[in-house]
Amino acid sequence: MYESPFFKRDEFNLLPPSPGIYKFHNSEGIIIYVGKAKNLKNRVTSYFNNSKTHNRKTLKLVSEIQKIEISIVNSEFDALLLENSLIKELQPKYNILLKDDKTFPYLCVTNEPFPRIIATRNRNTRNGTYFGPYASVRAMNNVLELIRKLYTIRTCKLNLSNKNIQSGKFKVCLEYHIGNCKGPCEGFQNSADYQKDIELAEQILKGNLIIPKQYFREHMEISASELQFEEAQKYKNKLELLEKFQSKSLVVNPRLTNIDVCSIISEEKSAFLNYMRIKNGSIIATQTIEIKKKLEESDAEILLLAIIDLRNLYQSASPEILTNIGIENIPAEFHFTTPQIGDKKKLVDMSLKNALFFKKEKLNQNESSKIKELRVIKQLQVDLQLKELPIRIECFDNSNLGGTNPVASMVHFKNGRPAKNEYRHYHIKTVVGPDDFASMTEIVGRRYGRLQKENLPLPNLIVIDGGKGQLNAACIAIKELGLYGEIPIIGIAKRLEEIYFPGDQFPLHISKKSESLKLLQRLRDEAHRFAITFHRNIRSKNTFVSDLEKISGIGEKTINELLTHFKSLRKIKDASFEELNRVVGSNKAEVLMKSFQHKKGES
């Protein structure tokens, strides 16, 4: 792989006609998009030459591109793998999000003298052999329950080393007495016999049910021929358990083996993708996911990117992938088929049904959420006797600890949900000292004075975190702007959750169980959280900058350079000498390092 230097936006014609990946950087040097290409020059220039065919989001992406970085690889397949890896690592703003496998459940056969089979979400190959992941805990537990019914595998965490067993360190537990374990802890079962059960259990975990079925059938026949009918019945019962388990997952001709199925359906904002892994006619793994679209990704592009993750996740090397869409320019390493008839078509149809059901379920959930939100704001309208439905609600709060760094916050809810792009922070500018009332007057006046000036829509309801005093302070600003009576405004006092209206002597009490009160509480708590977080960050920044200013030889210009480059204040302290040297030079880097080390020694 060859990584090129950066190209400026107007130098993209210098790009090579080779397969590889490209990274778009914005003006701050942040990677905002990663893509793959069979021909880097053609693909990258298409963003700039075909602007009339782009949608709004792609045009927004293009407007932010300042630099282009490329990596040349040997093939389109290598580019696909590298793109997948970089998206998960960098999570660029305009790429579809690919999730990692950290939260999926697995079954692990541990690396111990007498291995256990345990459920886990933490995959560390040093601890044992992992099987899965499973689409749900229920599916995993079904397999684990089957294995424990078929084989006597220990569930204890004892260290069953030869030394411990021979010294008689352990005693059998209840599991031995009820027949779920053969007591290897006391030497009642040897390692070879125990390992045989583990090997057969691993075959089930791999989806190879033929081998354990053959084992039980042979031993059943041997026991019957030796007139050991009770033993034969035990093997027969286990065989029936295995066949019953297989019948639940048998979907098509058992001769269809080692096949992946991946179907996709799409709408404007999302794609819904179902993956199934087939072995001996049975589904041994399945998962349905939703992928949020960011730009103009086609179904084929999304499927190709997702199938890499899914095959890695389920450890599949199946030579054939069945899908419901035609895919052009397929890398040679993949063999896609779109079947039209037969058992393979049935598999694709089944996968598509799963994707459609998942899509319908998601849309129903979203619809139910919207209905609930509408019900809550309608109830709030009734409880507060508002003329209009409070679709847009804004809530204000101050944060002032000891009069230092006074700040305030405003949060905005639309249709009962946070609209975080409308949140605002405020530095108090005109108030000296810890005067919460005057601060409230200032920020409310600034907020709605600006909305008036810019001719932007006003909220349907204003909520003030506080009682009569805070509410009256906010009303002063509203009156000065000539908006008093036009926008409903209330105060919510925390202690008794009382609702105050301007001019009313007595507060309104809404039922503690009311959804509308819970919405107001959520608004108040969110405004408080937002203000406190901002205040904490300001204090931290001021303290740190103040500490930097105290260092002899470090001036305002140097501090600005450090903050601009490292972005985070913590990263400045954690930076190495080499990193500081590149930004401010060796002399100042040495001064900073000595100062940081001295402060660490004091603490």
From TrEMBL:
Gene Ontology terms for molecular function: DNA binding; excinuclease ABC activity
| Predominant cellular place of this UniProt entry's protein | cytoplasm
- Recorded protein name is UvrABC system protein C
Q: Which family does it belong to?
A: Belongs to the UvrC family.
Keywords on this record? Cytoplasm, DNA damage, DNA excision, DNA repair, Excision nuclease, SOS response
Give the subcellular location.
Answer: Cytoplasm
The segment(s) forming the GIY-YIG domain are: 17-96
Gene Ontology biological process terms, A to Z: nucleotide-excision repair; SOS response
As recorded in Swiss-Prot or TrEMBL, the protein's gene is named uvrC
Alphabetical list of SUPFAM superfamilies matching this protein: GIY-YIG endonuclease (SSF82771), RuvA domain 2-like (SSF47781)
Please indicate which superkingdom the organism of origin belongs to.
Bacteria
> Any idea where the UvrC family homology region profile domain is?
265-474
Explain the purpose of this protein.
The UvrABC repair system catalyzes the recognition and processing of DNA lesions. UvrC both incises the 5' and 3' sides of the lesion. The N-terminal half is responsible for the 3' incision and the C-terminal half is responsible for the 5' incision.
For this protein, the record's Gene3D superfamilies field holds: 5' to 3' exonuclease, C-terminal subdomain, GIY-YIG endonuclease, UvrC, RNAse H endonuclease domain
Subunit (UniProt): Interacts with UvrB in an incision complex.
GO cellular component entries: cytoplasm; excinuclease repair complex
UniProt-listed InterPro entries? GIY-YIG_endonuc, GIY-YIG_endonuc_sf, GIY-YIG_UvrC_Cho, RuvA_2-like, UvrABC_protein_C, UvrC, UvrC_RNase_H_dom, UvrC_RNase_H_dom_sf
